[in-house]
Amino acid sequence: MAILIAGYEFLTRSVPLPDTVVSSQPVAVEPAVIELKPIQRDIARIALPAVGQALARRVGQSEQGYKPLKPDNAQYSLLGFSCSVSLDVAYLRGDLVTLELDAPCQMGVPVTVRHEGVSFTAVTSDIGRVSVKMPAFNRQAGFSVEMPDGSMISTEVFVQEASDYDHVAVMWSGDTGLQIHAYEPSGAHVWGNAPQSLSIAIKGRGGYVTRLGSTDFPEAKQAEIYSFPRRQMRNTGVVRLDLSAAVTPQTCGKNLLAKTLQPGVNGGIVLVDLVLNMPVCNSGVRNLVLKNIFRDLKIAQN
Amino acid sequence: MGLLRVAFFAALFAIGLGSPAVSQDVTLTSQDGKISISGKLLTYDGEFFRIDSEFGALTLDGSGVTCAGVGCPDLQGFVAEFTIAGSKTMGDVLLPALIESFAVQSGMTLQRIVTDDAHFTYVLSLPDTGRAVARIGFRLSNTDGGFADILAGQADMVLATREVTEAEASAAKEANLGDMTQPARSRIVGLDGIVPTVAPENPVRAISLDDLAQVFAGKIVNWQEIGGPDAPIYLHMMAADSGLAQQFMRKVMGRSDLQLAENVTRHSTAAELVDAVAKDPFAIGISRFSELGNARRVALRGACGMDFAATRQSLKTEDYPLAMPLFLYTPARRLPKTAREFLAFLRSPAAQQVVRRVGFVDQQVGEVGIERQGQRLANAIALAGEETPLDELQRMVTVLRPAKRLTVTFRFETGSTRLDAQSRGNVILLARLLEAGYFGDRELMFVGFSDGEGDAAVNRKIAKRRATVVRTAVTNVATTLKPSELSLSIEGFGEALPMACDDSDWGRGINRRVEVWVK
């Protein structure tokens, strides 16, 4: 254990290692500057491969039948969990799933979650986990997560009721003030500040808004999704959908980049890159409201 | 020579498109190197070079020549640019959906650059290289605005919920945009209809056109007078410059020379209008079939009790009296290749499906068997009498029973022998289907009907003559077919199968028609 800790210290401090493993006093380190990095069980391999080989040769010469240790390639976190990344997506109810990413050695790092054209940035917790509730767009729903090193992990889940729902989404990075507004036949105005919830959707009384993605740093990708339980609705009618962008000192006069997703007229989901030419700063317009980016959702008679 | 020069300059002005119009020297050489022509490049549209050579303005297929010289366009980097202006009814949802579908079908990615709901641009790009192929601009206002824009050189296509007016057509001619009244200058993208709407809880299900006009003139002010509760009527109408409001004024109010009441609430979009109507049980508003929102449509009632609701079928057959075809006008000049491909796409079954999916009425030809025409047959029996004796009805049933009615129907402009706009579109539609062999070796019957005014025997003759006129119009367009290859017969049943009552102009207008039956 002492050796492990020593190894850890060497790693984080990048101190050149002396020839022998059992040397030094650990250098005193202030806890605040410790950057947690994965450590490896096979300390000889990571710290002193050259010494390790030399040692094996020397021991081999003096001891008959000696077999050098096989290096163990698995990596472990400080807490002893395997560094391997796992992704679990479980069906909750309605169109909702829970996505759980477990990356014990990648704490506090941004990862990109993707599903059917939706993508957003999540940041792993200090034990390397991400847990998100999000809607699934189709019954055979594929989810993937891209790690900071570019590696991908993906999984699929069967979402029984996904096709009973219509979905529209908008995605962006940074401070754009983009929002979806749904005006439902009941008169409800559903949006980020009044998102409703899945339980209302399950009862067939309206849709709900899900906001996804980190707001911690400007490059983080965010997404807003409106789920509407088309099949569950008791009455026929039309849901009007607006997209609004707040005209703020940060956004005025700029070109905002976003992406939209909505049901395609010939089926499937269509992704469109959106460029919003925001009103100039002194125009007096406080909110750019676009009524025709998203088509109305129609509740057909059953 | 003087005249030629005039024509040449006219041609020069007519070319607004195909962007790199900066005149530069180019030499176009045929692939085998034998023929070579030099001159100034006028336009390149992604497919054709147009150059001002020593022989005058020449158009050359780009695939057959190589271009050399400072003026040569970047053939790989060519971006087709064109602008669509006009009606919001068509431009809000329908055209964007068609462009979206066109891009998906051509495997291109889409970018939408938005300034506001009326001004936006689509950029279509190749997915692998990301190279832009087309930039399609939108300037939405209303039909008037669309024609104004094309006259001002700010648009290349006009979205119109009505036909071009004489004034617009003559201005277009002067601006070298060609004769906008010619069939080649317009196409029907889809169909729509003017529809009165009320809140879902309003009990009124049907209203006569005359009552509707009286209501909007402020002469009927209480729902009680038209079968509703004792409550005032609140009127909702589109803005006066909208195509929809203009059509309503002409087709409904204009018939009785009535003016619109002053206490009408105006709306800038049909969506806004129906949303207001849906919330107020005492409101009535004039919307369109493609935008009913959460309101309920009200059928139109003939005085002798036949109701016409706006449905896909009744709009296709124009049995509903307030059908509104949606036109796309193009100028008489060569549009860039992607624009031409888009226009061709509009006629495809895929595009017609888009039209239907976004709530408009497509022009796909349907067939309706006689068993689904019980209401019409009941009318025929109810109105049969001395003029239309039993044996005439029996003859009609014998002829029609083995056949099916096509949704393609031909009607005439009020007080005229000229086919109306939708029917003129139908002539082309039917001719194209015949050329494509759509009906195989089945027989098509052109069946004429008349209104009930005047002598029945005369009406039968008039009906038969109308059927002949329509058949001739169709065969004149279907030029790739010999008349002998077609099995097209003529029938006339006069006033035997009325669609509507003959007690009003519009009723008579609906009855004067040529149906097409296939067997």
Short description:
The complex is a heterodimer of chains A (302) and B (519). Helices cover 12% and strands 38% of the residues of chain A. With 302 residues, chain A is mainly beta.
Description:
- The complex is a heterodimer of chains A (302) and B (519).
- With 302 residues, chain A is mainly beta.
- Chain A contains four helices and 19 strands.
- By secondary structure, chain B is an alpha+beta fold.
- Chain B folds into four domains: 67 residues, SH3 type barrels (Roll); 143 residues, D-Maltodextrin-Binding Protein, domain 2 (3-Layer(aba) Sandwich); 125 residues, Periplasmic binding protein-like II (D-Maltodextrin-Binding Protein, domain 2, 3-Layer(aba) Sandwich); 154 residues, OmpA-like domain (60s Ribosomal Protein L30, Chain: A, 2-Layer Sandwich).
- In chain B, the strands form four sheets. In chain B, strands 6, 7, 8, 9, 10, 11, 13, 14, 15, 16 and 19 form an eleven-stranded mixed beta sheet that branches. Chain B has a five-stranded antiparallel beta sheet with strand order 4-3-2-1-5, covered by helices on one side.
- At the A-B interface, strand 15 and strand 17 of A face helix 3, strand 7, helix 8 and helix 11 of B.
